[in-house]
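I have been asked to look over a protein record a colleague put together. This is what I was given:
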Amino acid sequence: MKNTFSLNLFQKCFYYKCIIVICLFLFPSITATQVSAKKSIKVLLISGQNNHDWKRTHPFMKKALDAAKIFETDIVLTTTSEEVKNFSAPFDKYDVVLFDYNTTDNWPKTTQEAFEKYVKKGGGVVIIHASNNSFPQWPAFNEMIGLGGWGDRNEKWGPYAYWENGKLKLDYSPGIGGSHGARCDIKVINRNPQHPIMKGLPQVWLREHDELYDQLRGPAKNMTILGTAYSVNSKREEPVIFTLTYGKGRIFHWVCGHLWEGDNDMRSLESIDFITLLQRGTEWAATGKVKQKVPDNFPTEDKAQYSTTIKIE
């Protein structure tokens, strides 16, 4: 009996040890997966109507976000006026909404109200280039983006905003809303180096052959300027990177990133600074923090830099 009991006890101990070992291997894996899923930032990328080449820009932006390994991005496209006028989306499922979008048509009133509620409650928003041309007749959207252009915008939409004597100046003089010169090289000046998005970026860096919007105008409320660039067209230091708040929501506005349909010059989007700011701005809009590191090959004042892996197709 002693021998039998000892053998059974040994077998039982071996069995339980195996269970423990399996758990040690299995549970950390499950936990890591759960933590990863919990920490992923859910992005809704809206595209499909734009006077720029949205067919190439929206998959490129998703690829840029994927490269950061912290985002989970869904894409929704509205390609016709009818689709815009009937658009709805489950905004509350997402941490941030990214606009690669330029439409003069309006979403249904119920969708506008749902989006306003989403942002006021803390939903994030990212505005890229011509997205600030959208929805000129939607007051809340104009307040969210701070500054916009075209769509018959004028002094009724709000002041011009530009950098002068070390601070933001609001100019209420009458005139158009939105202009730009020919594509050109741009030197971006970091105006807020302690902001989470801008921390670690150089004081000045070079962008090559992009379109620099100027004379944008809008409500310009709750706006923090992060970066400016001198426009030879307006003869002013124009805001090109800025943030806003709308209720509890955070908005990141990056004015650069021009690409016409059929254009073979990809520098404005494939530049390291465009990709880095898209990634960092989206993270900040979603969380209020930026944990991503600035890449070692970020542009300098005299040299632009381009991605070799995140390319437009």
Notes: Residues 1-24, 26-37 have pLDDT under 50 and may be disordered. Residues 2-39 form the longest helix (38 residues). The radius of gyration is 24 Å.
